[in-house]
Design goal:
globular, 30% strand, 17% helix, 242 residues, 6-stranded mixed beta sheet, single chain
């Protein structure tokens, strides 16, 4: 099973073939236009399911599934966390809960970015389990920006999830320290000399054990399409029961 998250920097309809060439089973796409605006080059690019969230038809959070993976919004979804979305993902041999993330809510005066994730994971804490749980997307955060005396910073989110048995796939697989990542996922103004690591795939302990690879996209290639590069996580095909 392959999970990919990629902030496409809008106009996904023009860029879809480039990410779909990597054959995702579940694809999380922040800054994607509404599905009504999407067009695909051929039948191979059409998703099994598409979910979309946002107020701007040109720039929302889109989740697409392929290869018989099915998506369903979970009823616990709270509209105030419109860009942290709980989704049931089902497949004949897989079932897990996905929290798709685009940490961006300018209407919240108490915290626009990672604070959204902090609030959401506390609201949904009963559903964050150390089995069959994934959080993936653009968190717009890194521990280098932790604010003193601010509870909802990046490190607080990482620590809270860790206590739930949920960890960053990239950091564990590549033995990286938060805030000292060797592989950026975002380049300010697409400049190679302004790199940051903002995009993550967190997974529960039992799924972390099944990781085969974690890949971060190359700046030279992806900068033609976005200021972000994809995070791609391959899980070994083993049956997971809940």
């Amino acid at each position: 099973m392959k999970i990919i998250t990629w902030n496409c920097n809008m106009a996904f309809r023009k860029k879809a073939p480039h990410i779909l060439a990597y054959a995702p089973d579940v694809l999380v796409v922040p800054e994607c236009e509404h599905p009504d605006k999407l067009s695909y080059r051929d039948e191979l690019c059409k998703a099994t399911n598409v979910l979309w969230f946002g107020n701007n038809q040109n720039k929302g959070l889109c989740i697409l599934s392929y290869n018989d993976y099915k998506l369903k919004l979970i009823k616990i979804h709270r509209p105030e966390f419109r860009m942290v979305v709980p989704i049931s993902v089902t497949h004949p041999t897989n079932r897990f809960t996905l929290f798709a993330v685009w940490a961006n809510n300018p209407d919240d005066s108490d915290g626009t970015y990672v604070e959204q994730v902090w609030k959401a994971i506390h609201c949904y804490h009963k559903y964050l389990k150390n089995k069959n749980t994934i959080l993936a997307g653009d968190f717009n955060s890194n521990s280098i920006w932790d604010r003193k005396h601010r509870a909802g910073n990046h490190s607080s989110v990482v620590d809270f999830l860790s206590r739930k048995g949920i960890h960053s796939a990239y950091h564990l697989h590549h033995q990286q320290e938060q805030g000292k990542e060797q592989h950026p996922t975002y380049y300010l103004y697409r400049h190679k000399d302004k790199p940051y690591h903002l995009d993550y795939c967190f997974a529960s302990s039992n799924m972390i054990d099944r990781i085969a690879s974690v890949s971060i996209g190359d700046h030279q290639y992806w900068s033609s399409y976005s200021d972000h590069v994809p995070v791609m996580v391959d899980f070994r095909d083993e049956q997971v029961r809940v």
